[in-house]
Amino acid sequence: MMSQVFLAVALALVMLIFLSLVRAIGGPTVLDRIVGVNMIGTKTTVLLLLIGLIYEAMPMFIDIALAYALLNFIATIGACKYFRRSNQIHLEDEPTTKEEVSA
Predict the structure, then answer these.
(1) pLDDT in tens, 64-99
(2) In the chain, what is the greatest distance between 2 CA atoms, to the nearest angstrom?
(3) Alpha-carbon distance 49 to 61, whole Å?
(4) Distance between CA atoms of residues 17 and 41, nearest Å
(5) What residues have CB less than 8 Å from 32, skipping those under 6 apart?
(6) What is the rounded distance in angstroms from the CA atom of residue 52 to the CA atom of residue 58?
(7) pTM (2 d.p.)
């Protein structure tokens, strides 16, 4: 019985992953795309844990989910730093041109 509930929740989570994929592909800004990919990674981590519950092999899937969550976090931080240094991300509080910096 509980296995069927976990399977239903996992299927709903897969549908939410596809909605996040829409944001990751069609996001109007780079930050929207990064957030979309981060949401996919977070939901995939939860999905891995649900698969562990379904197959009753939690210790193995906990290790995999933790490693995947760590990679997801590092990739998100790396992408943010890369786009920040390449000046593709502009925050509202920061000056964007040389004239604004000197003023």
Answers:
(1) 999 999 999 999 999 988 888 887 666 665 555 556
(2) 67
(3) 6
(4) 9
(5) 23
(6) 5
(7) 0.77
